[in-house]
Amino acid sequence: MQDFFPLTVTDINHDTRDAVVVTLAPRAEDADRFRFRPGQYLTFRRDFDGEELRRSYSICATPEEGLRVGIKRVEGGAFSTFAKGDLNIGDTLEAMPPQGRFGTEEETGGKHYLGFAAGSGITPILSLIKSILSGNDQAKFTLVYGNRSVSSVMFRRELGDLKDRYLDRFNVIHVFSGEAQEIELFSGRIDADKCHALFGPWVRPDTAEMAFICGPEGMMKDVASALEEAGMPKNRIKFELFGAAQPGRAKLKARAEAARKAGNMVKATVIMDGAPHTFEMPREGQSVLEAAREHDIDAPFSCKAGVCSTCIGRVKKGDVEMAQNYALEDYEVEAGLVLTCQCYPVSDEITIEYEGH
Ligand SMILES: Cc1cc2nc3c(=O)[nH]c(=O)nc-3n(C[C@H](O)[C@H](O)[C@H](O)COP(=O)(O)OP(=O)(O)OC[C@H]3O[C@@H](n4cnc5c(N)ncnc54)[C@H](O)[C@@H]3O)c2cc1C
Q1: 215 to each of 143, 189, 273, 325, how far by Cα in Å?
Q2: Which of 23, 55, 59, 67 to mutate to test ligand 1, by most ligand atoms within 8 A of the CB atom?
Q3: Which of 11, 82, 137, 266 could form a disulfide with 345 if both were Cys (CB 3.0 to 4.6 A apart)?
Q4: Does ligand 1 come within 6 angstroms of the Cβ of 57?
């Protein structure tokens, strides 16, 4: 069963003109459910004009600090506009327990970490920076943070305080796309050229243990390939993507309808809470997640874009293919894990299990 639990808004801080930082507290009986690892996110649900929307926000605090998210208003965006403009202390938000695998579970020791963030992509990385630096007095962190201008930098004061506190161990390089800087290197966007120019004197991928990247898709790809070119192994580069382009829903629906009409169906079994549910689904145009929910199975989901990891399932029988995957590592896919929101049947019969549900 997928559960949402009430969280009370205990503080609101309007960090920039467009961003709000919201502190939340679970009920005493839910405290254990809401324990989290640095880098994880919360998924909220809320009705907007009669439609339930689910949106994920990374936790920007350490486990010791508690639940806090930083939300940047997106022009015309439903949840972020509501959070920035209408959320008040004392309000309740419904949230799923923390999820996500961005971060590291390794011993941080005297190691050196890199972070590359753009805009609101700083949120999970801030949690990692604070946890890594406070967790070991030898650990080091270098952050490259891209924004349009100084006024749009989220957590500007907190990053400054961290710099004061960890003078020799924390280094932050701000890169501004909309404001000229005295040093040309710090103007522009974080792309492959910028990375190569920063590598060496400013950023040392050769001595870094791991790199964390969070920002727009193009920036993440550019930074990752620059890091790989600089010799960093792929499995040491971690991503968190906040959104991805999706194929048009209307087109997919039409393909599913055509498959149904042509009798082009497969037999699907979805195991939820240990109980198997078997139904027929179109071979094309409908994801396993959508088919399961159409058959009243309470399958978990959030972004529906292959970005978050809420809808993970395991293939027990048959073959499926994923349209997009920004959340699972190669070895997890090899082990049979799939993002069911992106998962389409390839064989005549499939069985997928939602584990932990
Ligand atoms: C794992 C994860 C972690 C995340 N962490 C954070 C975080 O820490 N901080 C943060 O700020 N964000 C984060 N995000 C992004 C966040 O979840 C939302 O996607 C974001 O806030 C936008 O949601 P919204 O409801 O405000 O906008 P939406 O209503 O989803 O709109 C998004 C865009 O689509 C446009 N749009 C909406 N409806 C239509 C339509 N019918 N036709 C055309 N265009 C339309 C809007 O104008 C807007 O530009 C995260 C996402 C993921 C997956």
Answers
A1: 13, 12, 35, 16
A2: 55
A3: 266
A4: yes
